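Protein phosphatase 2C domain-containing protein structure dump, as promised
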Amino acid sequence: MTVAVCERCAAPLAPEAAFCEVCGGAVAATLPDELGDRLHFGQSPASWVAGVCDRGAARERNEDAMAMAAVEPAGSHAALVVCDGVTSAENSDVASLAAARAALAILAAPFSIGLGGTHSAQVAGRRTFERAVREAQQAVLRESERNVKAPGACTFVAAVVMGPLVWHSCIGDSRAYLIPDEGKPLLLTRDDSMAEMMIAAGMPRADAEDTPLAHTITRWLGADAPDLNPRATQIEVTSPGWLLVCSDGLWNYASAPQDLAQVVREAAEVFPKPLALAEALVQWANDQGGHDNITVALARVGD
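structure tokens r here:
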């Protein structure tokens, strides 16, 4: 009988393991094996975590990538990573998949926080995200070396659930939202985009995101990346709801937290399970036009 081994450290893997118990690397079986599998695929590494990645209605290929790991019981630990390939770079589908896999290999294992209390936990969280971004960047650069004439680039957003705490970070304009069943929804991340710069200068969000330069990103993973500081922060979940990590193929149609929350809450009434809800949100985005690739990664938190 063939024993599965970790791609990162070659340690034997337990059956149906979500991550390696030795190095924390993500198990490849939870990820798409080939680029061709990415036209539409779903993942559900645990009962409370799932995601769907889809090429959308208008694109020929899917340049989004998604990777996730989670363990039971619900709310204990999960890592969700979404990377969106930069359309102007030819091999961005390859870059985004490499980045998502590399980042998950770092984020899949619970942070080691030692005995230093709150400050130690914060330092450990920031350092773990810094490592994840470095590994993702190196993975993109390695793929670019293989395709020198057409190097790829991508965005990065990730969220890690550790009990009541959610760590999150992004580079580019993929996002993380916290949507409670009741109460005020939150956009956790801040875009690195021209639209965000216009919003900071005082332009209303709806107007800024409707300009021709709105989706021009100011940070990315790949060649000539200007800044790789992941700006990792944390938030405490105090009530039941959904952690949503997504590409702009979803939030394009409902950017403001209250607008996207309405879509999620209405869909969750019909599809309360994470995988079915992710499928419903992807279908909703396609129904709005599906002009871009769509990735929806969900974790049920706060229960």
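The mean pLDDT is 86.
lmk if u need the other ones
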